[in-house]
Design brief:
This protein has helices at 18-27, 70-77, 91-100, 177-182, 185-188, 214-221, 243-252; strands at residues 7-14, 36-38, 43-49, 54-60, 80-88, 106-117, 120-122, 125-130, 142-146, 164-173, 193-196, 199-204, 207-212, 232-240, 258-260, 264-267, 276-281. The chain has 282 residues and is α+β, with helices and mostly antiparallel strands. The chain has 2 domains: 7-157, 2,3-Dihydroxybiphenyl 1,2-Dioxygenase, domain 1; 164-281, 2,3-Dihydroxybiphenyl 1,2-Dioxygenase, domain 1 (Roll).
Amino acid sequence: MALPALNFDHAIYGTGDLEATRKAAQKLGFVVTPRGRHKGWGTGNYCVMFEQDYLEFLGMVDPAGESNGLDKFLASGGDGLLAITFGITDSALVAEQLRGRGLNPHGPHALSRLLELPEGDIEPRFALTRLPPEEMPAINGFLVEHLTPELLRRPTWVRHPNAAVGIQSVTVAVENPEETARAYEKLVGISAVTPTDDTWAVHVGKQVILFVTADDAAGLYSDDGTARGLPTICGITLKSSDLDQTYAALKANKIPAERLPGGVIRVDREDAVGAVMDFVRA
C-alpha cells in the first residue's frame, strides 16, 4: 500500500494562561491571530501562522468544558510543547492507506473553532484522524485535514516582525530514540527515518522531528527540559528570513536572546512558553 501524503502541519503549545501566552508570543516578535474557541470543548487558542505550517497556543477558555488532556499536561510540568500534528488532504484515502500498512487509524472526527474577527466570527473546520500512541509515539500527535484552509491565513498574519517564516525541526527527548523513531516507519516510510550518532530523525515533508536521549537534550540545551518526565518535546527550531532582524526584534522587546555558533539565535524556555526556541537562517 502506498505511503500517505503527509506534511508537518503545526506544533501545539499547552498553556495555563492563554492571554499571558499571547502577550509572550507578541513579545517574541510574532503576529498572533485573533482568538479561536473550539466548539464543543472548553479550549481556545491563538496561532502564529506561517505560509506552510504554524504554532498553536492552546488554553482553557471555559473551565467547565472538556480540556482534551490539557489539564493533565499542565499538571505534569506547566507550559510547554504539547503535541505535533501532521497534515493530510484526504482523510478517507489516508485511513485506507494506513490500514493497508498495518496501522490502526480512528476517525476522522469533526472539529471546528470560532475565530473571533472584528467583523464577526468565522468557523474554520477540520477532520482529525488519530493513531494509537504506540503508532505515533512521544509527540501526542494526530493527523489533520483542513476543510476550510482559506480561512486560516491572511497576508498580515504571516509577516512577522522577527522575520520567522516557518518551522524547521522539533526535538523530543525519549528513553530510546531508535525504537521511537522506527515506530514511524510504517507511517512515513523507512527512508524517512534516519540515524545520526545517538539522534534519530523522522522527516515529515520538509521538517524534521529529532528524537534524542535526555542526556543529549541536556547537552544541546544546557538542561534537558524533562521535568515533566519522558517523553517530552523540549525544543523547536524556526526558520528566519533575516537573522539580524530576528535578533533586533527580540532585543527590542528585552528578550534575552543569545547568538550561538553556527548562526543560531536561542531563546531559553523561560521566555519561550516552556520550550527552547532556536532561530536559524531559512
